[in-house]
Design goal:
The structure holds two protein chains of two kinds.
Chain A: H1 5-13, E1 19-21, H2 24-32, H3 34-40, E2 43-45, E3 48-51, E4 56-60, E5 70-75, E6 78-80, E7 88-92, H4 108-116, E8 121-127, E9 137-142, E10 149-157, E11 164-166, E12 173-175, E13 178-180, E14 186-189, E15 208-209, E16 212-215, E17 218-225, E18 248-253, E19 262-267, E20 271-279, E21 281-283, H5 287-293, E22 301-306, E23 316-321, H6 322-326, E24 329-332, E25 335-341, H7 345-360, E26 371-372
Parallel strand pairs in A: 1-2, 11-22, 14-25
Antiparallel strand pairs in A: 2-21, 3-20, 4-7, 4-10, 5-6, 5-8, 8-9, 10-18, 12-13, 15-26, 16-17, 16-20, 17-18, 19-20, 22-23, 24-25
Helix pairs in contact in A: 2-3
Chain B: E1 3-9, H1 18-26, E2 29-36, E3 43-50, H2 54-63, E4 67-70, E5 75-77, H3 87-91, E6 97-99, E7 106-108, H4 118-122, E8 128-130
Antiparallel strand pairs in B: 1-3, 1-4, 2-3, 5-8, 6-7
Classes of the chains: A alpha+beta, B alpha+beta.
């Protein structure tokens, strides 16, 4: 039993395609079995809404008169990288305002959110004065409508699985995985489990460069494998890695996105991040792919990692499944430990649901990957500071 | 059911044994949840109180010049800002903030709150406020 993306697209365009979410497919297969479900369903939709620090936007502001070759550039006081042509800049979500005088952190994520809400942003730039770009500095009020392009380009989003974080030390620590109380008092986790995009196609059979996705409420694409893309990770029999593995680099038009699915995040004593809403459609091309999308929370395991140890290699405390994590408490070393997510399941559900509706309404067709992801990749690290090749 | 109250003491009121008087004169069952008071200085006391003469006891507290509020009035979750990520549920020591198992949404039970303030810090959306 097989289907092609082309066949599924024809069904989508004629309004006959059937899509269900990665949660709904589990019940369907339970009821009707694999083969009958395969005949009925064409696409399974996934979703995630999680803080993803490696996110940002390429902006082109339009030219100043006289023209300026921007170097130092800020948006509401948040520096953007402008080491590009004239009025191009990249604003990273995690960049902090240079001198923010409010009572809370403010950063690139807040500027991106403000742009999405249609707010006016203060743009200030100094120029490298040249014969062709004579302006020394400029300051403007800009909005998402007033600028030429705002292209979201995220080098690393949608981690395929992530550690469950604990703190084995004697003092509270403040991390990008939230606040962790001492002595293993709580455990924080980050993926949406059985709804999570890359946990439903664990060996990337349907995903690659070019794949069309839901990004921030709009249609975006997978631009490339994400940075720190790592396939050589210990995996369960179902192909699911038990530690962070693949990542995705995503691209989309911020002008088409919505503030409902891109929202700023502040992590106490850590910094600014951004919630990114992403949904991945998985075409059911054969029965193995269908089996993969039936994965349940209790079949997805991750590794418990002690974030209090300030080294790259951190102590681990075995594995835990997402059904247990989502239950609110687990047992660790014979003691009850409170568990909490960092990503929103209600939003992930809404994303999977929206993507499903787009497909059923014929508004979203699938794109065959133009290049598959690399295989057998592992990570390099810098090692200790001051180290070199000769050592 | 016992109710939680926050008592803000001004400098003068710290000289009286308020909790003792609540027990002795009004037969109030008291559970001290948190106390940050030093003699001669302003301070805060969070009490769980239960008893038939609770209304009289509260009137007495007010008459002593102590500011008293129900705890449930102090914590607020702005639903427009909340994205149901659940980061607050990680730090709530009393289960006032939990995740509904079915809907996966964050649920606030203000009556359980002890105003420790950790959720305010933990919320990435800055959706929680505590008016203490």
């Amino acid at each position: 039993m097989k289907k092609t993306i082309q066949e599924i697209n024809e069904k989508i365009l004629s309004g006959k395609a059937v899509a269900v979410t990665a949660e709904e497919i589990i019940d369907l297969v339970d009821k009707d079995g694999l083969e009958k479900t395969f005949e009925k369903v064409d696409v399974v939709t996934t979703g995630t809404f999680s803080p993803m620090c490696s996110t940002g936007v390429f902006l082109n502001f339009g030219h100043n008169d006289p023209p300026i070759k921007m170097n130092k550039t800020t948006l509401n006081g948040v520096p953007a990288y402008a080491g590009l042509a004239a009025v191009d800049a990249y604003l990273g979500a995690g960049e902090l305002a240079e001198d923010y005088h409010g009572d809370d952190m403010y950063g690139g994520a807040h500027v991106i959110e403000a742009l999405l809400k249609g707010e006016e942003i203060d743009l200030f730039a100094t120029g490298a004065v040249t014969d062709c770009y004579p302006a020394r500095e400029c300051s403007h009020k800009v909005t998402l409508d007033s600028i030429n392009e705002a292209i979201m380009f995220n080098p690393r989003n949608c981690y395929q699985n992530y550690a469950a974080a604990v703190n084995g030390s004697d003092k509270t620590i403040y991390t990008y995985m939230g606040i962790l109380y001492p002595k293993f008092k709580n455990m924080n986790y980050a993926t949406s489990g059985q709804l999570s995009p890359l946990l439903n196609d664990p060996t990337y059979r349907t995903i690659g460069v070019g794949t069309k996705i839901f990004l921030g409420g709009a249609q975006g694409h997978i631009a490339w494998n994400g940075t720190q893309f790592k396939t050589n990770v210990e995996r369960l029999e179902n192909g699911i890695p038990v530690a962070p593995a693949a990542t995705l680099s995503l691209i989309g038009d911020l002008k088409e996105m919505s503030a409902e699915y891109i929202q700023s995040a502040v992590f106490e004593r850590y910094g600014v991040s951004i919630f990114v809403g992403m949904g991945l459609p998985i075409p059911l091309l054969d029965l193995d792919i269908l089996k993969n999308v039936c994965v349940r929370d209790e079949e997805i395991f991750t590794t418990i990692v002690d974030y209090s140890v300030p080294n790259l290699e951190k102590p681990t405390y075995g594995r835990i499944d997402y059904k247990s994590l989502k239950s609110g408490s687990v047992e660790l070393n014979g003691k009850k430990v409170r568990t909490a997510p960092m990503s929103s399941i209600p939003k992930a559900r809404k994303i999977a649901q929206t993507l499903k509706e787009w497909i059923m309404a014929g508004e979203f067709t699938l794109v065959e990957p133009v290049r598959m992801f690399p295989e057998n990749t592992s990570l390099n690290s810098l090692g200790a500071s001051g180290g070199g090749k000769d050592e | 059911m016992s109710k939680k109250y926050i008592l803000n003491f001004h400098q003068k009121a710290t000289e009286k044994p308020i909790t003792y008087l609540l027990v002795k004169n009004f037969d109030i069952k008291i559970n001290i949840i948190s106390a940050k008071i030093e003699a001669g200085e302003a301070g805060t006391l969070i009490l769980e109180m239960n008893g038939k003469r609770l209304d009289e006891a509260i009137a007495f507290i007010k008459a002593e010049g102590v500011d008293i509020h129900r705890m449930s009035e102090e914590i607020e979750l702005d639903r427009d800002l909340c994205v149901d990520c659940g980061a607050c549920t990680a730090v709530c020591p009393v289960g006032a903030l939990t995740i509904n198992h079915r809907t996966a949404e964050v649920e606030l039970k203000p009556d359980l709150c002890v105003a420790c303030g950790m959720c305010v810090k933990a919320c990435p959306r800055r959706a929680i406020s505590l008016s203490i």
